[in-house]
Design a protein that fits this description.
It is a single chain. This protein has 30 helices and 18 strands. It has 708 residues and is an alpha/beta fold. The chain has an eight-stranded mixed β-sheet. A seven-stranded mixed β-sheet has the order 1-2-3-4-5-7-10, sandwiched between helices. Strands 6-8-9 form a three-stranded mixed β-sheet, with helices on one face. Helix 1 packs parallel to helix 3, helix 18 runs antiparallel to helix 25 and helix 19 crosses helix 25. It is globular.
Length: 708
């Protein structure tokens, strides 16, 4: 069939082709077909041209890329250049006097799905995914999505899609599509068939806005029950409640008034610090991948097989990441019993996922088939990457790397999962330090999204680039950092833990401190976190750092006493809290406060009543200050990298944008002045730990921000 190019919009973002009585508008705005200003103008131009052509009987909107559209270009939010607004474009489409079909040749998200909802008919293929993920940016669908989707799929399914932002397969949404092709390749045939049917039957144009919503079709307490069900996971976020209110408007108001209410709620969300924080993380995550340590021409090594040293909790979790991505893994343990136990735990984890319906039994067996074990270093000779996950002691790490250097083939990347140790020192024992890198996974490694990629002094650009790209393969968010104690995440968390422990000495209780931090938005407070991880871990780290902390005799002294009494946390049933057998719920223990009082008396620290505000400032502001020092030293390249690490690795609330963005929102002068106040109030302790970083002082004086 011949194709006539009727019109091409500005910069070819939308191409309009004619095939007989069919006019096709193809969106062509790589890489994700964002509905930018040029696309919106192209759609208006294309629709108007097709409507004015008497030979055109049906209009089809589709894509010239691998996906239909990923939605709005959110960079326009900051510029304010939103003319013509997307709702205006969609109104033109919906009110068209010729039938308009949306042919989704790939995923449609956000504004992309809203575009499809405004068309009169929708066609896609089985397995294609659609969604309205705006809630993850702190906003809600602002182009009619909250009003049209409930009319097509029902109120309850629409509510869940909009509030969770999760993508859904097309076949799981009855009512949304008029036809589902079996495969993507059959989509064009389905579109032609639907167009013929529309013309032959002379159907009245079906506008989504005309579909009535029957309130009797769902429970009158639907919204109340939904609010109650999501309260815990959405605490602190602003947009989810406004999403619910927008869907309520679809039920309670006529369509046009519902659109007006949606727009009001959208603008309300857009102006909040929560939206700014979530959008900051969105951009910072993408910016983290773009580093100056390699370029487009830097080669990437092929990682076809991976070795993991250690079959414990961390080693097993790391191995699962690669098996999940279809990469074979050889796990080494020196004792067969430990190896068998580790592989057994991995299978148990997969079986648990299968029991929840997240994996099929076939998936379980396929992934387990990719995992093999050995007790001999010689069996690691053909791996392309090896990651050690052994005990956090320098002499053990060095021994492992010395042995790997002898058995691994040339070009194998030698990675350490150390969370605190000097990777340059580890690299000093091998003959190829350019192949050594840190790959710091966070526990549980098969669940946590963050991967700190730690470059040592001699790490090659090739190894850095390979590691950063490999992170995407195993579905991790990678941030490149430099070598120092604790790198970025654990170096900063040390200040947070230190202050929490000092506040305990000064009179605050573990419950009060944890409550303040939980209400700030973290998933748990420092004492609950310590018990979950094991207090002995921090104890061993402090033992190795005595020269750096011995000037402060109060440094985590209560935590040390707890460990010395065998109170190492949840695994022992006792830590900062007590735990009943088989339970994870912490129980208050007065004995901990007695230990704190005793140590405070010994150290000459006067206990007092401490406000929640002081707890928040003394735990969070030093953490921010340490981040500023990390930026000064070049350990992190940019403030956004620190924010990504803290949101994905430590549960810092995304709606606050990470610690550095939170500081920007709070005001750097306020952060600086508060640190100075505690420095002056806390005597020698304040002088030691509350000195503001020079870059914080400079930015505060200049009225600037970390992320400006």
């Amino acid at each position: 069939m011949s194709v006539e190019i009727m019109n091409q919009a500005d910069n070819h973002c939308v191409v309009l082709q004619k095939q007989g009585g069919l006019a096709r508008l193809l969106i062509k705005n790589p890489p994700v077909n964002a509905l930018s200003k040029r696309v919106r103008l192209g759609l208006i131009d294309g629709i108007q041209t097709a409507l004015q052509d008497p030979s055109v009987q049906v209009v089809v909107i589709s894509s010239d890329e691998g996906l239909f559209s990923a939605g709005a270009d959110i960079s326009e939010f900051a510029s304010g250049d939103v003319e013509p607004p997307l709702p205006k474009v969609l109104a033109l489409i919906e009110n068209a006097e010729k039938p308009v079909i949306a042919a989704l040749n790939g995923p449609a998200f956000g504004g992309g799905l809203e575009l499809a909802l405004a068309c009169h008919y929708r066609v896609t293929f089985i397995g294609n995914k659609v969604g309205l993920p705006e809630v993850h940016l702190g906003i809600l669908p602002g182009a009619g999505g909250t009003q049209r989707l409930p009319r097509l799929v029902g109120v309850a399914p629409a509510l869940d899609m909009i509030v969770t932002g999760k993508p859904v397969k097309a076949e799981k949404l009855p009512g949304l599509f008029d036809h589902l092709a079996n495969t993507r390749e059959l989509l064009d045939d389905a579109v032609s068939s639907l167009a013929d049917k529309i013309l032959n039957q002379r159907e009245t144009i079906r506008r989504t806005s005309d579909i009535p919503l029957d309130a009797s079709a769902f429970s009158p307490d639907l919204f109340a029950r939904y609010r109650s069900g999501i309260a815990r996971q959405t605490r602190g976020f602003y947009a989810p409640e406004r999403c619910i209110q927008a869907v309520e408007a679809a039920v309670e108001l006529p369509f046009e008034q519902g659109l007006e209410r949606e727009n009001e709620l959208f603008l309300e969300c857009l102006q909040t610090p929560q939206a700014r924080g979530q959008q900051h993380i969105f951009f910072a995550e993408r910016a983290a991948f773009h580093v100056e340590d390699y370029d487009r021409d830097t080669p990437v090594r092929n990682i076809a097989k991976v070795g993991v040293i250690g079959a414990g909790t961390m080693g097993g979790g790391i191995a699962m990441n690669f098996a999940n991505a279809g990469i074979p893994v050889m796990i080494l343990e020196l004792k067969q019993e430990a190896l068998d136990k580790g592989l057994g735990i991995i299978r148990k984890n997969y079986e648990a996922s299968a029991a929840k319906g997240k994996l099929s039994q076939e998936d379980v067996e396929k992934r387990m088939s990719l995992l093999s074990g050995t007790t001999s270093y010689q069996d690691l000779g053909d791996v392309d990457l090896v990651i050690e996950a052994v005990f956090e002691k320098m002499d053990i790490k060095k021994e492992v790397f010395s042995r790997l250097d002898k058995v691994c083939k040339p070009g194998t990347i030698l990675a350490t999962n150390t969370s605190t140790l000097d990777i340059n020192e580890i690299a000093s024992v091998v003959s190829r330090p350019e192949d050594v890198i840190g790959l710091h996974f966070f526990s549980p490694a098969n669940v946590m999204k963050l991967l700190e990629v730690v470059k040592a002094e001699n790490t090659s650009a090739e190894v850095i680039k390979t590691s950063m790209q490999l992170a995407k393969t195993i579905n991790k968010v990678a941030v490149l950092v430099g070598v120092c104690f604790g790198f970025v995440g654990n170096r900063m968390i040390e200040t947070y833990s230190r202050e929490a422990n000092r506040l305990l000495l000064e009179g605050a209780s573990p419950e009060q401190i944890d409550k303040v931090i939980y209400e700030f938005g973290l998933p748990m407070g420092p004492f609950t976190m310590g018990d979950m991880a094991g207090l002995d871990i921090g104890y061993f780290v402090r033992q190795s750092r005595k020269p750096f902390i011995e000037h402060d005799p109060s440094y985590c002294v209560v935590a040390d006493r707890l460990v010395e009494q065998g109170r190492v946390g949840l695994k022992a049933g006792r830590g900062a809290y007590l735990y009943e057998a088989g339970q994870r719920k912490p129980i208050s223990d007065p004995e901990v406060m007695e230990i704190a009082r005793s140590e405070a008396c010994r150290l000459g620290i006067q206990q007092r009543e401490i406000s929640d505000q002081e707890i928040l400032e003394r735990c969070i502001y030093p953490l921010i200050n340490e981040g500023a020092l990390i930026l000064e030293e070049g350990i992190a390249a940019k403030a956004g990298d620190i924010d990504v690490i803290y949101v994905y690795g430590y549960g810092f609330p995304a709606y606050r944008g990470g610690p550095m963005k939170y500081a920007d929102e709070t005001g750097l002068k306020h952060i600086y002045d508060t640190l100075c106040r505690y420095r002056d109030q806390l005597g020698a302790y304040g002088e030691a730990w509350f000195k503001p970083a020079p870059v914080l002082k400079q930015l505060a004086e200049q009225g600037k921000t970390f992320n400006s």
